[in-house]
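Researcher: Last one for today. Full complex below.
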Amino acid sequence: MTGRLSGAMMAALLASSAIPAVAETPDRERIAGTVEAQHDANVAALRDWIALPTIAAEKLNTPAGAEYMQQLALDAGFQQAKIIPTDGVPAVFATLDSGADTTLGLYFMYDVKQFDPAEWNSPPLEGRLVEREGEGLAMVGRGAVNQKGPETAFLAAIKAIQASGRKLPVNLVLVAEGEEEVASTHFDQVVAVPEVRDALAKSIGVFIPSAAQGEDGSATITLGAKGAVEFQLVVGGETSDKYPQTDIHSSNHARIENPAWRLVKALDTLVADDGHTPAIDGWFENVRPLTERQKMLIAQNAELNPEAQEKERLGVGRWIDDEPYVTSLERFYSQPTVNIQGLNAGYTGQGGKTVLPGRAEAKLEFRLVPAMTKDEAVSKLKAHLAKRGFDDVQVTVSGGYGPNETEEDSTLIRAQKALFEKDGVPYSIIPRNAGSWPGVIFNGPQLNLPASQFGLSRGGGAHAPNEWFLIESSDPAVNGFDEAVMAYVDYLYAVAEEAGRSD
Amino acid sequence: MTGRLSGAMMAALLASSAIPAVAETPDRERIAGTVEAQHDANVAALRDWIALPTIAAEKLNTPAGAEYMQQLALDAGFQQAKIIPTDGVPAVFATLDSGADTTLGLYFMYDVKQFDPAEWNSPPLEGRLVEREGEGLAMVGRGAVNQKGPETAFLAAIKAIQASGRKLPVNLVLVAEGEEEVASTHFDQVVAVPEVRDALAKSIGVFIPSAAQGEDGSATITLGAKGAVEFQLVVGGETSDKYPQTDIHSSNHARIENPAWRLVKALDTLVADDGHTPAIDGWFENVRPLTERQKMLIAQNAELNPEAQEKERLGVGRWIDDEPYVTSLERFYSQPTVNIQGLNAGYTGQGGKTVLPGRAEAKLEFRLVPAMTKDEAVSKLKAHLAKRGFDDVQVTVSGGYGPNETEEDSTLIRAQKALFEKDGVPYSIIPRNAGSWPGVIFNGPQLNLPASQFGLSRGGGAHAPNEWFLIESSDPAVNGFDEAVMAYVDYLYAVAEEAGRSD
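Model: Here's the assembly. Have a good evening.
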């Protein structure tokens, strides 16, 4: 899933009250020296990892990527790391017991998005260092920011702490999957393995290393994310003998049904006449309204991201129903959607062609908000279509997961705030990412754990050509690789301290 | 437009009553000898014409094709032939006055459908002679059957009559267009030229040479054709600032309208919930029901074309509403349609992609029956959408024309019947082609002329790779090139005789 981090929402400091300061990281100078000494080796490690792309959709380097991930964990000091088979791509489970009171969960992805080298300015698997104007030196490669760069920085952090002769302030439980880019299709199987589940259950929460720093050095705390479920509706010769097997001459529509019309009729029932309000039976039953605190955070963020700039970035002149900006943002963060990603039927070239299509497909996606679940949404869709007699409309769910939500006063989030306060990093809080990540695996009923993203580093181009991760920053307010590593070091100590405060 | 001739409807003799026999063509032996002597030159002429493809959609050989057509007419004995400019591709107008009592109109097309040489077994512009199993020797090339083969055979017929020292039994008025394959976009301009209109107005009707012989040698008489209008509906950033200019991240659908939903909502209003009955306001106002004679012809044709065979050919198991076969055929010939040719929006590759499309397009087409007109249909569509507030749905009409209809007792049709009776050619009559050709240009209110297709020859693959036209037939019941030429010779005499009978 894309859109993990909205670049738009990270800008400046939000007023926040009564965050206790955290202590200075012990032996910080020494650890920083170790990080500096290991800089070249760390950068080389990122480059080597980029050279081995795992792409689940293409079955590329799937066992090889898992074995590589296993070795990375062992090299970083995890005492055990094992490959967990699934019905799809295998995952990796690793633990590092430092004898600490607090256990922290970690979620990694070792797969990357597809890429077309022809669209890149440098070879996507070479991890070249390229100067970015006004930013510094960045490594360019597929997976640089999504997610190998931040993950490599995290591994470098725990290596540096240990190499400095210290034990980690927290125990670690790592789960790494190789199917994040195909909607984490089998990740629930990994977490259901008793050994994995029991290890995670001891943690105070799970986080994924990320690159959340804006151009000005500001950070964003996100308190959850919408869920996303992708599915396709198909009608045609393959679903009913009412329709032809292939495109045939269009004159036959006078006596033969057209699957494109049937698809239109089915789609039409899924949203209201306004063209956006979901109309699936019972859709809003479990949708929780925004809290006053969430509304306040949204209003504050609106001030940080001028409306005109947002409209220009998105290429639109108006929001849904011509709503004012803050209303549109409340909608953005709070409303579950039924979106058409694509339509494909019959002739799609220039002008027209006299065919009756043999097949019509709509690609759709739900975005779900608390307390909706994936199973609920899919069941409601199927019941909705069945009730209206659309037996010839085939529903294929290709992946997805429910929403996740983490309390603002959880240890994971308190540690982020405390760290930003101490270091004077400007930050904003968004109540929910309108994009999606599979935090629900940790967040959902099985484990009920906080799940968040953290990383004071910078990069861009996820899912696009010339993906990059900043290595040497030319702006003191923005972290390069070594500073990003130190932010993870500080975060681990902050988590340990905040966890102690909860006791 | 495609589907000019339905291969399914030509099978065997329909009982027909009291057709007076026509006389033997005078000097037939001598003319046939001339045709035989000119065989190689005629086949070479067809091959040369195939080598110069005019493709209006690609602006390929548009003036060159018109000049070539002009020269073909002059070479065939037309006393004058001139190029008629239009706002699109030029047409050709030619006349041959033989001092006869009767004038016959001719409609030619000199353009051909696009082609991809990679899909062909022999180069599409070389006109190679290839053996077709069980049929004989055929010329393969783009335009071979649609329509250069039949047209070359017709020109050969009038050359042979003249070369045999005879005057043609009818005067000829030829109009040839170069935009048939793009729905005759400017052909009405040609017929509106006073000189052309006045010349055509003197004719007893207009016919287009065609290859209408079935595998068993049977012929089909068609008494008209549906009209066809192609149009596209587009919604997106280009039609309203409610929609993004390009595909953007799908999470934004929570606050930004999706043009694909809007398109679905507009489309949904165009047909009833059954997915096929047109629901455009006033759509059926001018639709004439089938006559008893038309129903009888349909029932007879149903017997000639077994239902199981038709279903297999079309790849379907059922007709609309599970109707019985004859009912479905009545629908086929009598009902105007609103067809979706294609849908195209957003992501159309494998699986899903989290985008909100910047553009959504539906390609549609009307098929019209008497007494509907193109202008009526387009006006009603626009009024229908406007009434429902779809101002952001852009309608582009890319071409089309209304239906045509020719009386069974017109000279053109009587001459066909009389000829088939005399020669013992089995034939069937279909009341209307469910496909389309621009006969309405002649048939409509301006000229009110009968308009039909005629040609006792065989070919196939129109609009497809390996298009062919039979040159040497291995079956005595099926015409090769020379026999096709003689059928045109006989037809001209039959037309003259039948016209005399009308006086």
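Chain A touches chain B through 85 residues (CB under 8 Å). The longest strand of chain A covers residues 227-236.
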